[in-house]
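Might you be able to check the backbone structure tokens below? Thank you kindly.
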Amino acid sequence: MSSPVSQESTRRRLTAQQAETVARLTDAAVDVLNADGFDGLTVRVVAKRAGVAPATAYTYFSSKSHLVSEVFWRRLAEGVPEADASLSREDRVAEILRNVSLVVAGEGQLGGAVTVALLGTDPDVEHLRLRIGGFIRTRLAQALEVDVEHPGPVVDALEMLYAGGLVHAGMGHLTYEQTSERLVAAARLILSAQP
């Protein structure tokens, strides 16, 4: 992996070999989730599937919630680019919300696991939760062409919208594809109410 995200983890910068180990662990975590669900996921089971010593795995991930949150962070950072500047303001926001909501679409039990994991109290999860929130806030502010540091109430409303939508999908009430379209429709309502 060569992206900047693959060269870092929650806890430290990674060498190329360490980045490969983390990639094997995050890939194995998705495999374990799809086979055994979040309840069957442990750092030890993931380490075994990845061919990594459990002690090594724990140097990178403090808990299964940390591991799942890292999977989500990596997919989000690699799968949600800045919106296409040639699009209208509403279409840029729609593009960001679609991309955010579809990051775990079709990934079996990953979406539900991400919902549970991000609500955890592990300090490493908290760090990732802040990183994830800041990343999405930045993408939305850029799409709206507002100050990233002080984006204002429209971005706040859009953040509440996507967070609620992703929790709703993570609970299994809607698919991520259905959630994506509802998020876009609701965002268009919010944006159409703006002067």
Notes: Residues 16-40 form the longest helix (25 residues). The CA atoms of residues 60 and 123 lie 13 Å apart. The chain has a mean pLDDT of 90. The radius of gyration is 17 Å.
